[in-house]
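Reminder to self: tokens first, then the designed residues, so the page reads top to bottom the way the pipeline ran.
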């Protein structure tokens, strides 16, 4: 990512995204947002939070050990920069949930999170990162389970569209609480998770002595993986009266605790996971859904005719990057491959002598195109 100019490191666990990196990040966020819009409503919650709700939930001193970035303001009040939003989502939901008519409901956001974690492996474990987090609220466990399955299916759609190979693994709820959770793990040698993966379906398990898939019966293979998503059935962990508290009135006028689930996707981490699974000796080889630029227009001649044609093609393609300047043709080719452009449009001697444009795919296949307008449909 650094060689390709996607990101810049500003110290332990802190990163910025260049224009190129932001385009990739935006493409990933677009896919996540499109699938989440099918199951939830987008919101934007506060990142600067007072300690009260965290103390109500009992997580002020326990969340992730010492992973909080916390401080005391000028008035002597405790604050944190949000590491997660279960508490905030529950408090927000209390403003709108009164009766059974207000349920079921689900909200999500794509936002930065901050954790004083041990930074390592680039974007895989950072102190500042981008997450899609969602929260659903329900009348009972049955409706919670139904929505939970909808989110699992939406997650599968997200990762498939991004070109990832992944497994769905039963997991521990940890500090989150609740009855059940599932991790989505992408195979990758740099991953910190070790699990048994089925080659024929999405099943995976962290029980390393398990040799057979429980879903299809195939053999399992031990691999390293990158956690790319986690879904939790939280139940009443945060909604019970001695916690934050969130109830609703039933048809019969009874007061009942709301059932809750939460769902996370490590959006910025996905960049690393996608590259880990989609690269070769030349650089990144991701799909057109993710790639910042599908087409690299490469000027292989300084002749005015070639320059004008290159600029014309570049202006008509929304997904193109123009390689001109003083670098050699070989250097332009190498940079286009490094950043993951799926095709190169080459304006050189073939164009000047025969009016034919060379188009080379990322895999090395070359086509000679006489009419680019028909080829690109512009």
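Designed residues (378 positions):
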């Amino acid at each position: 990512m650094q060689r390709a100019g996607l990101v810049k490191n500003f110290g332990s666990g802190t990163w910025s995204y260049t224009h190129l990196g932001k385009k990739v990040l935006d493409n990933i966020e677009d896919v996540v947002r499109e699938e989440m819009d099918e199951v939830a409503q987008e919101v934007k919650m506060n990142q600067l939070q007072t300690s009260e709700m965290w103390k109500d939930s009992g997580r002020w001193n326990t969340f992730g050990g010492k992973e909080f970035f916390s401080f005391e303001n000028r008035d002597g009040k405790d604050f944190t920069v949000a590491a997660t939003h279960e508490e905030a989502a529950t408090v927000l939901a209390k403003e709108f949930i009164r009766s059974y008519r207000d349920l079921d409901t689900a909200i999500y956001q794509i936002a930065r999170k901050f954790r004083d974690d041990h930074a390592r492996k680039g974007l895989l474990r950072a102190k500042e990162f981008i997450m899609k987090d969602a929260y659903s609220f329900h009348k009972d466990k049955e409706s919670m389970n139904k929505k939970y399955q909808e989110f699992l299916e939406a997650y599968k759609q997200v990762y498939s569209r991004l070109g990832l190979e992944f497994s769905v693994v039963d997991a521990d709820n940890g500090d989150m609480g609740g009855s059940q959770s599932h991790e989505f793990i992408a195979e990758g040698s740099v991953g910190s998770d070790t699990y048994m993966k089925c080659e024929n379906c999405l099943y995976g398990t962290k029980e390393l002595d398990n040799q057979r898939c429980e879903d299809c019966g195939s053999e399992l293979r031990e691999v390293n993986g990158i956690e790319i998503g986690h879904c939790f059935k939280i139940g009443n962990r945060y909604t019970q009266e001695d916690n934050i508290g969130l109830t609703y009135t039933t048809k019969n006028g009874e007061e009942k605790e709301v059932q809750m689930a939460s769902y996370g996707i490590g959006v910025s981490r996905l960049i690393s996971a996608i590259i880990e699974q989609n690269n070769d000796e030349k650089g990144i080889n991701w799909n057109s859904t993710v790639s910042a630029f599908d087409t690299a227009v490469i000027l292989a001649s300084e002749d005015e005719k070639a320059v004008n044609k290159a600029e014309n093609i570049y202006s008509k393609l929304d997904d193109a990057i123009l390689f001109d300047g003083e670098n050699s043709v070989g250097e332009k080719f190498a940079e286009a491959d490094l950043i993951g452009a799926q095709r190169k449009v080459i304006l050189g001697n073939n164009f000047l002598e025969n009016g034919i444009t060379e188009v080379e795919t990322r895999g090395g296949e070359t086509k000679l195109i006489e009419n680019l307008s028909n080829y690109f449909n512009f």
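The longest helix spans residues 141-161.
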